[in-house]
Amino acid sequence: MDIVDTAKDLANDPTLIGTLAWAWGLEFLPRIGATLLILVVGYIAARWASAGFYNILSKNRNFDPTLLPVASASLRYTILVFVLVAALAQLGVETTSVLAVLGAAGLAIGLALQGTLSNIAAGLMLLWLRPFGVGDYIEAGSVAGTVREVGLFATMLDSYDGLYRFVPNSELWNTPLINYTRNPSRMTDLEIGIGYGSDIEKARQIMLGLAASDDRVAQDPAPNVFVNALGDSAVVLRYRVWISTVDYWATQRYLIEEAKRRLDSAGIEIPFPQRVVHMIEE
């Protein structure tokens, strides 16, 4: 009945529309302005708080740098949620209703984005179990590289040839993973062939002496040299030594090159495949 009476009043007195609009403006425009102010200030505050939190944690040596991006992002999104609820409350919306709507919307979005949620779940498991961290060199399936950042949705890698790789977390979680830099030392396993006419023991002592002369090679476990196979044109020696992970590649390349020099200097032949052809005269 009130609506009908109001409509009749508006029809009889058109100036009443301006009066009602003015009254509405006085009532709601301050709320809208306050809402916009809350959103703007809240957004800026969330960014500043996230950046400051990141800087504080990055200076803490006891905090794992792998968790830095996720921790700062979590703080930012948490602040933004509270800002959104405060802004809606300023407009007169019941916060309990807002939370219920957000929960329902989250459920609907979750059902629509199952693949994304699997990446988030995988990211949380990777951060919890920590099979790798920032700076580790890993290989998982066809992907390999140095970990730059572990996020909630994906992991960023830098390949050895300088390529940037963006890998969904679910691919890393569901694939057997090799971490080449997790352990402090690694064993290098080299095969070096010598001629059948060469002295095996002499070659062994040369290679063991090479390992003993390099400080980057661990002496415990002790270096080992043994005959691994009798090839078509060479006696294949297996050369196993343990090296610090930090010096692994440089030391391995040095051992291969220096072994060749020392074996040559000792007159021990490192043969290459050969074929002897016998001519039969008829």
* Helical fraction: 40-55%
The unreliable regions are: none
* Strand runs, count: 8
Strand content: 15-25%
Terminus-to-terminus distance: 128 Å
Sequence-ordered SSE layout with sheet pairings:
Layout: H1 2-12, H2 15-58, H3 68-90, H4 95-112, H5 114-129, E1 137-140, E2 143-150, E3 154-158, E4 164-168, H6 169-173, E5 177-179, E6 185-194, H7 200-213, E7 224-230, E8 235-244, H8 248-265
Antiparallel strand pairs: 1-2, 1-5, 2-3, 3-4, 6-8, 7-8
Helix pairs in contact: 2-3, 7-8
Describe this structure in words.
It is a single chain. By secondary structure, this protein is of the alpha+beta class. The chain has 3 domains: 8-109, Helix Hairpins (Orthogonal Bundle), CATH 1.10.287.1260; 124-179, SH3 type barrels; 185-265, 2-Layer Sandwich (Alpha-Beta Plaits). The protein has 8 helices and 8 strands, in the order αααααββββαββαββα. A hairpin with a 2-residue loop joins β1 and β2. α2 (15-58) runs antiparallel to α3 and α7 crosses α8 (248-265). The model has no long low-confidence stretch (mean pLDDT 81).
Entry keywords:
Alpha-Beta Plaits; 282 residues; Helix Hairpins; 18% strand; SH3 type barrels; 8 strands; 3-stranded antiparallel β-sheet; alpha+beta; 5-stranded antiparallel β-sheet; 8 helices
